[in-house]
Amino acid sequence: MSREFVTLVEMGLRDGLQNEATPVPAEVRARWFNALAGTGLDRIEAGSFVSPKWVPQMANTDQVIAGIKRRDGLSVEVLTPNQKGLEGALAADADVCAVFTAASESFTQRNINCTIAESIERFRPVAEGAKAAGKRLRAYVSCVVGCPYEGAIQPSQVAPVVEQLLALGADEISLGDTIGVARPKEIHALLDAVLPLLPVKKLALHCHDTRGQAVANIYASLERGIRIFDSAVAGLGGCPYANGATGNVATEDVLYLLDGEGFDTGIDLEALAAVGNEICDFLERDNPSRVGKTFKA
Ligand code: HMG
Ligand code: MG
């Protein structure tokens, strides 16, 4: 019997490295991208076309993409917050353009320097341009359960943002537990509000593992039919300025869960863990993935 498929969208080279204190050279990022693609990952964020003054770590994403060995089925994904970002993505021939806003006004202001309503207006030409060029459009909503500035966020604050992004033509919505505060009960309440708005196959969950709840939250959303999850090899990430902040849930940890639940991902866990350990060695940091650590020589 064929196993049901779950898609993992690899975040390590974007969400992970955007928080590293020292920028990693583009050729190293490209090498890691190719190594990750070699483990069977088909969807990988290569970086961001954002202001290098705001996020210097994501500068030269065009050079990263130029170093990627393309293959059938491989999706090269990038963040494109505005028209300038879209131009960069199209010039680099990325496959997926991702816009990003939040369910919290304070977070949106600090992250992309505008209100939520303004962000939607900025995304309109990005969406149109991406579609006209035949690209897929992903849209993130951050702070879906909690915000570092405003505290708890209600599902009723998330749903209208999701609706506006769908109206723009988003092919996929990724719900971000940006600061890793969510627990399964909150995820269920969130999904109660969001699932009626779109087909479940258009919905992804983007967990940060700050409080160690990400695998539980993914398990809860698997039960609700979600089959797309964002994760980062070796749990890369963690903001140097935010106490205790961590990266996305480790891809290795999610893979181990999915394998146990009988899902197919097309990804080789052992090969992925080797890439994760190599990246941690390069960055001279401990590997926060419990599963990844078990593969360390
Ligand atoms: P702004 O300052 O309002 O924009 O920034 P602006 O249009 O006034 O431009 C200011 C300067 O930025 C100009 O340069 C522009 O050319 C330049 P100057 O004239 O001063 O030399 N600029 C750009 N340069 C390169 N690429 C661009 C671009 N746009 C403008 N696309 C902007 C607005 C959105 C650009 C800025 O706020 C920004 O770059 N923010 C960074 C946001 C970011 O990358 N955050 C992290 C990713 S989101 C995330 O991590 C959450 C997620 O993981 C989900 C979750 O966990 O919840 C996705
Ligand atoms: Mg994130």
How is this structure best described in words?
The chain has 297 residues and is of the alpha/beta class. The chain is built from 12 helices and 10 strands. It has helices at residues 12-16, 26-37, 61-66, 83-92, 105-112, 116-132, 155-167, 184-194, 214-223, 251-260, 269-283, 290-293; strands at 7-10, 43-48, 75-79, 96-102, 136-142, 146-147, 151-152, 172-177, 203-207, 228-231. The strands form 2 sheets. Strands 1-2-3-4-5-8-9-10 form an 8-stranded parallel beta barrel, surrounded by 6 helices. The longest helix has 17 residues, at 116-132. The protein is globular. The protein starts with 6 loop residues before the first strand and ends with a helix. Bound molecules: 3-hydroxy-3-methylglutaryl-coenzyme A and magnesium ion. 3-hydroxy-3-methylglutaryl-coenzyme A (HMG) binds next to helix 4, helix 5 and strand 5. It comes from Marinobacter xestospongiae.
Helix and strand arrangement:
Layout (H helix, E strand, L loop, with lengths): L6 E4 L1 H5 L9 H12 L5 E6 L12 H6 L8 E5 L3 H10 L3 E7 L2 H8 L3 H17 L3 E7 L3 E2 L3 E2 L2 H13 L4 E6 L6 H11 L8 E5 L6 H10 L4 E4 L19 H10 L8 H15 L6 H4 L4
Parallel strand pairs: 1-2, 1-10, 2-3, 3-4, 4-5, 5-8, 8-9, 9-10
Antiparallel strand pairs: 6-7
Helix pairs in contact: 4-6, 7-8, 8-9, 10-11
Magnesium ion (MG) binds next to loops.
What attributes does this structure have?
297 residues, 16% strand, 8-stranded parallel beta barrel, alpha/beta, binds magnesium ion, binds 3-hydroxy-3-methylglutaryl-coenzyme A, globular, 41% helix
